[in-house]
Amino acid sequence: MADTVALFTSIGLSEQKAKETLKNEALSSALKDAIVQAQRVRGASGVDKAMGTLLYSMASRLKDTKRLAFLSDCIVQCKIITELQLAAALEFVKSHPQDPINQREFEEACGVGVVITPEQIEDGVESVIKKHKEQLLKERYHFNMGLLMGEARSALKWADGKVVKNEVDMQVLHLLGPKTEADLEKKPKPQKAKVAENEVKAKKEEVAVNGEAMTGEGKSLMEQLRGEALKFHKPGENYKTEGYVVTPKTMDLLKKHMEITGGQIRSRFPPEPNGILHIGHAKAINFNFGYAKANNGICFLRYDDTNPEKEEEKYFTGIKDMVEWLGYEPHAVTHASDNFQQLYDLAVDLIRRGHAYVCHQKGEELKGHNAPPSPWRDRPIEESLVLFERMKKGLFAEGEATLRMKMVMEDGKMDPVAYRIKYTPHHRTGDEWCIYPTYDYTHCLCDSIENITHSLCTKEFQARRSSYYWLCNALDVYCPVQWEYGRLNLTYTVVSKRKIIRLVEAGVVRDWDDPRLFTLTALRRRGFPAEAINNFCARVGVTVSQTTTEPHLLESCVRDVLNDTAPRAMAVLEPLKVTITNLPANSKSEVRVPDFPANETKGSHTVPFTHTIFIEQSDFREVLEKGYKRLTPEQPVGLRHAGYVISVQKVIKDTQGKVVELEVSCCNSETAEKPKAFIHWVSQPLVCEVRLYERLFLHKHPEDPSEVPNGFLSDINPNSLHVISSALVDTSVKGAKVFDKFQFERVGYFSLDPDSTADKLVFNRTVTLKEDPGKI
After folding, report:
1. Is 352 a catalytic residue?
2. Is the pLDDT at 199 greater than 50, yes or no?
3. 627 in the Ramachandran plot: left (φ > 0), alpha (ψ -120 to 50) or beta?
4. Is the pLDDT of residue 212 over 60?
5. Residue tagged active-site, from 20, 108, 272, 689
6. Which residue out of 42, 63, 379, 497 is catalytically annotated?
7. The model's pTM
8. How do residues 657-698 score in pLDDT, each as one tens digit?
9. Angle at CA 44, nearest 5°, toward 42 and 48?
10. Catalytic pick from 487, 516, 640, 695?
11. Is 497 annotated in the active site?
């Protein structure tokens, strides 16, 4: 250790810096190799502090250590003498991973031998100042001097930055003279112009029309996913990605890949068809399809159908339906099973190359860093080929043999299984196969076969990235780049297939599309618009960090969309009969109600108005209390849209003393004193069923044992569903179709449920009109 510290201090590092460097094993090893290489060229005392600084910077930033000796030589031979040149050199070797390096191109790219004279610097700076002279004289020292520096550095690429700055400062001083008191005053910030309210609304509508949901920071999902927003590699430049493994065949394979794709971005959404998609999948769909769409690429919907025991037709159909419901059209619908023969042939090739073997141990027995290797790991290649053929022919029992890959995954899993035996007919291939590939084997190879450029997956798959690259390279096939992003989690819910099945079996929910769940089918049934879900994904953002979000943020996105798209209707959930005594018994008129009161040009509908109407029980109180503005015996109230004000004449009660009817008189609202409130009402209404939903779970994290010790099934909210069987809704909803959405004025947003019949409509409350403060 003392020798290494002495070696590091010999190039100018302080003793403290040298000891800190030793704590980083990778950096320490790289720096040691760089210094040894430099001393071979310059001798033990020939590496000065300037060279030492560049060697340290290079060792700490270089990803491909096979270039370390080459770059060390360039530094000690004084070809690279500035940080600017070093940055260019690191970028060049990253962009040219294959040997040999073209020395002429390298030196040209790094400015080797380029000398910028003081005269050139003076002329270059003078040219920049001349360009901005008029504005400089006007703004003086309030001018953005960084602009001058940026343009001067751009024109004098390889010049010393300090020298350029000194020249800029000197020429500015010569032009403007010393700073005055006015120059020293802070520049006032420009006033932000107030935008007219209707202009804001117009912009909001324009965003909705273009389908690009805005985030809180004003960036649409497409803007976040477009171009440089995510710093992803460009097609064909896979090798520039950190961690990507370059082999002697990489560049040839990338060339063929580019010939096939034409440089087009290709992504894929690869769900397993063994369950229903949930809110977390909505982010994955938006990320994969959205990234392709934002960059003029294509996205495949690929079913990972490699486990015939759990796959059903309803899941295949349901997944495609949800992708299309969210507004995306797959370039093609593919299946892992499309490639079963090719995957099998590649497995045979993997055995021939010595990278796989047939094993007779159970999967879990090889898990863990200290697990002993399989006793069959070193069996002869020919023997494994014969046994794998026997597996294919069905000559082993299930669990008796597997094909394993010779590698250790990042999570310590040793020799992951590539193929296992399952005597279950496959949904698409029937009894043709009795061996099926695993995810670890199938995923990267299907990506390769489809020439995917960006394999986007959630963060938990980061541990499988090295095995992804290993398998493609072991078989010498095109290797895409795996990028990970943070999955989306919501509080007050569970989304795992296993737990939802338990909820269904326990009778807590009716099925996968129960509106209290957060599966996409459930959210659609509840009335959440696809646009709102996409907007929510945009608001959460395409972060790589894990995100846990409150449901009220999603509900806020729903309100934003429904406020502009759900036509108004009137509904009374807890009816109280009201008879208008000064209207004839057979009186009937039509009242015109705007579909969108804030914008009456968007249409209207009519509802009947007779001498009998119904209002909400809560809109009447026998005793006037402070702050109560609706109907009482002493206080009249207005009827929305009707043009009438009603006053109580008589309160009728049943034998238990409950108010069952009001007799009132009405007068025209234009002649009456303006009432304190206007309430909604219905007349000759439809009798409908209304379902009101609350959170399914009582605690934020129902799966967390520290929060819910007895398990998630013990945390069910007993009030999560309230059914009103005889709600009254105005006749404007009579022709509604399943999933049509309405705002029931003063009540909430509602959607027509598939349980509706010709005789009785059923409405689900999607969200309340305003957020419940208790939910924040």
Report:
1. no
2. no
3. left
4. no
5. 272
6. 497
7. 0.78
8. 999 999 999 999 888 899 999 999 999 999 999 999 999 999
9. 65
10. 487
11. yes
